[in-house]
Automatic annotation (TrEMBL):
Keywords for this protein: Heme, Iron, Membrane, Metal-binding, Monooxygenase, Oxidoreductase, Transmembrane, Transmembrane helix
GO cellular component: membrane
Source species: Cylindrobasidium torrendii FP15055 ss-10
Pathway annotation: Secondary metabolite biosynthesis; terpenoid biosynthesis
SUPFAM superfamilies associated with the record: Cytochrome P450
Annotated PANTHER family: CYTOCHROME P450, CYTOCHROME P450 12A4, MITOCHONDRIAL-RELATED
Required cofactor(s): heme
Family annotation (PROSITE patterns): CYTOCHROME_P450
Protein name per its UniProtKB record: Cytochrome P450
Length: 514
């Protein structure tokens, strides 16, 4: 009898969620939008994938700048693509916050930090961490890896090129960006380019592939059960049931992630303890050492607890590695497929290089065409093409009242390609557009690839600096890049970052010494 009643309530709840609510009750049901899609998954399969952002372009063209779609299991999402709407949402700290599902997942894979916190916790941490990313500190951090790690990259490419002329560029970029990130954020030699097997790097390598559709599907479904995700991802449950999880394919990722995170936290604590010791601490100027200095000097709320430190390392790894790799991959793609741009870039870099390398980074930093190429690549193919928000307090967008709890997807990639801002050739790669930006263009709306507002990417300057250094010094000063095969097209995938799905094979030819 009880089982029959339970089954009946589940069926009734499903009918309500999947049919009654979206078609007859939802206050957003009158908003234009595509058909509700798959009864369980809704439009989820079209929201992610190879052409994230652009596949929905047709929807925006057909239904207007604010549309409603069905997300999994009866949940709804509102999609926005207009740059000023997106900017307003990102500025609206009280009304909209980062989606709670994303924050729970971020807490699981990156610990307690900027990616998972909101409100006071976020404001406090941001205030403590901001100074470590100041422009003065960035220049010092640059000296920690430039040009040494970049030279290691050249060596790795050169030795691979002895065997073949086409290389999977993402593999090499992932290595060099991890080495750079570890060095500049906590003075750690991760040794990835040299294929050294370090515990922390191996653990991180096991963590990255878990960012896949399976993981997101399982976590999204469990999040639909009240407190489901909070309980499942609590430290106690993960520790006690680890062995059990590893026996089931569906939950295996939980066991792998838990073990990897433990190793990363343990290693990070060891490295930070060493950095804190008096003799090594003084001269170090990496991000974590700067934070540790204020940690030692600060008091009360302005001081990070020692227990909070390893999670900052995890946050920087999660926020700053895959994103830079993805963004750099697209720069290489555009340059390889635009010979004129490559020629001009090389000519510009030559003006500041002596011989085969550029020892002084400050000479690269201000090169206008290099800057334009990076901006243009990040405009067209941003590493984070969609930002996810959840309405916290009833909010009005374009005259539409969005009730608390509504999921809002902000299509940054579409906004970046606004014809109103950039004109009819907005979808084309044309770095020259950045050299003379008309004064009527609102740059604050034209540059959303690092987000905006209180959650604006904390590592944006570090990322651009690194991208400029690698682009100028490595690829174009010494190599000629071209597609790996005739009619090569972009094969991309999007989950947390938008990146090449095929590893970005490119042909490289070493140029004669200049
Ligand atoms: C090209 C490379 C990068 C891109 C495209 C990128 C993009 C973004 C975007 C769009 C956001 C805002 C997310 C939102 O509002 O939901 C963000 C936030 C963040 N990024 Fe980046 N990022 C990059 C590099 C980095 C680097 C190098 C680091 C650290 C070393 C980093 C650390 C973070 C952190 C911690 C946040 C959260 C900030 C907060 O909520 O206060 N990112 N990033």
């Amino acid at each position: 009898m009880i089982i029959a009643l339970l089954s009946l309530s589940v069926v009734a709840a499903l009918i309500y969620k999947l049919f009654l609510y979206p078609y007859f009750i939802s206050p957003l049901r009158h908003l234009p939008g595509p058909p509700l899609g798959h009864p369980i998954l809704g439009q989820l399969p079209t929201l992610h994938g190879e052409n994230a952002g652009f596949i929905q372009k047709a929807w925006f063209e057909k239904y207007g700048p604010i549309i409603r779609v069905q997300a999994p299991v009866g949940t709804e999402a509102v999609l926005l693509e207009d740059p000023s709407d997106i900017a307003a949402c990102l500025d609206n700290q009280k009304g909209m916050q980062k989606s709670s599902l994303f924050r729970k997942i971020a807490a699981f894979v990156a610990g307690n930090g900027l990616l998972s916190y909101e409100d006071e916790q976020h404001d406090r941490l941001r205030k403590i961490l901001n100074p470590a990313f100041s422009l003065t500190n960035l220049t010092t951090q640059m000296n920690l890896y430039y040009p040494e790690i970049i030279s290691n990259f050249i060596v790795a490419l050169d030795s691979a090129l002895e065997l073949k002329d086409t290389l999977p560029m993402c593999e090499y970029l992932e290595k060099v960006t991890l080495d750079i990130l570890c060095k500049s954020t906590f003075s750690y030699d991760s040794g990835t380019l040299k294929n050294e097997s370090k515990d922390m790097v191996m653990a991180y390598d096991r963590l990255v592939p878990l960012q896949n559709e399976h993981t997101f599907a399982v976590l999204t479904i469990i999040d639909m059960i009240p407190w489901g995700l909070e309980i499942l991802l609590s430290k106690r449950i993960l520790n006690v049931f680890n062995a059990l999880f590893s026996r089931f394919k569906t939950f295996e990722f939980l066991a792998i992630a838990t073990e990897s995170m433990k190793t990363i936290r343990r290693s990070a604590l060891g490295i930070l303890a060493e950095n804190m010791s008096s003799e090594s601490h003084g001269p170090k100027r990496d991000v974590m050492s700067t934070i540790l200095n204020s940690h030692n000097a600060g008091a009360g709320r302005d001081r990070l607890e020692t227990s909070e430190l390893p999670d900052q390392v995890l946050t920087f790894l999660t926020g700053g590695h895959e994103t830079v790799t993805a963004a750099l991959s697209w720069v290489l793609w555009f340059v390889a497929t635009n010979p004129k741009c490559q020629y001009r870039l090389r000519e510009e870099v030559r003006t500041v290089s002596g011989g085969n390398d550029i020892e002084d980074y400050t000479r690269i930093r201000d090169l206008p065409y290099l800057d334009a190429v990076i901006q243009e690549s990040m405009r067209l193919l941003p590493a984070s093409p969609i930002l996810h928000r959840e309405v916290m307090q009833e909010t009005t967008v374009r005259g539409v009242v969005l009730p608390k709890g509504t999921a809002v997807h902000l299509f940054v990639r579409n906004a970046n390609c606004s014809k109103e801002i950039w004109g009819l050739d907005a979808d084309e790669f044309r770095p020259e557009r950045w050299e003379n930006v008309p004064s009527n263009i609102n740059l604050a709306h034209a540059k959303l690839s690092f987000g905006r507002g209180y959650r604006l990417c904390i590592g944006r300057n570090m990322a651009v600096q690194e991208m400029k250094a690698l682009t100028a010094y490595l690829a174009f000063n010494t190599y000629e890049l071209s597609p790996a095969y005739k009619d090569q097209k972009i094969h991309a995938e999007y989950l947390l970052t938008y990146k090449p799905a095929d590893g970005l094979p490119l042909r490289l030819r070493r140029l004669e010494a200049m």
